[in-house]
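Please check the following for our workbook:

***
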Amino acid sequence: MNPSLAAALTQQPNPRVERSHPASPAFRQTHISPAALVGVTLAHAGLLGLLVFMPKAPEPLTPPRPLMVSLVQPKIEAPRPEPQPTQPVVKPVVKPPPVRAVTPAPAPLPRPVIEASEPTPAPVAEVSPPPAPAIEVAQAAPSPAQPATPAHPADYLANPKPPYPALSKRLGEEGTVRLNILVTPDGSVAQLELLESSGHPRLDRSAMATVRSQWKFEPARQGGRAVAAWVVVPIQFTLRS
């Protein structure tokens, strides 16, 4: 509000106030006339209008930002290679290794067989050798200085007969066992081979066990001294007396 206008309004006397309070000088000084109130109101309205319609201070300008533009180049796909025709796989030809001719091993030389007469053994109820069987004798490898065959072949003595198995008796098993025996210079059995089976294992085992453990032989002789030699002995198992 204008200061001069406000002072003028405060100094004008109000007759209504003075008439109602003639005796109060203090109240007379503070009396405000209606014209002063109207003026004050108008002054305030003018100030308010100035404030309302006063142009606003310009806002600071923001500088324009540069626009970033990036050019993206489209991806160009490479052309796919055309499928090539599949070539057949050629397997290498494997040459078979040359076959060597196999030379057959030379057949072993047969042992020299010497037939010798045998004394007739006593008849036996269960085990009976043939009546005057010939003993086939094969000499062991002689030294080069000696003759090919001994002068006197090995011969078997009065040896015990192999026992006849009880089960073989009940089953009626019979047969002849042929054994190939290596006789040492002292007449004992050094080696025993089953040359021919009787057809029944029990009879074969009985004959071999008895000959190996109990039999003694007259050794073969060469140049007046005993030598080792092979001899073939047949042993017959029969139930006929």
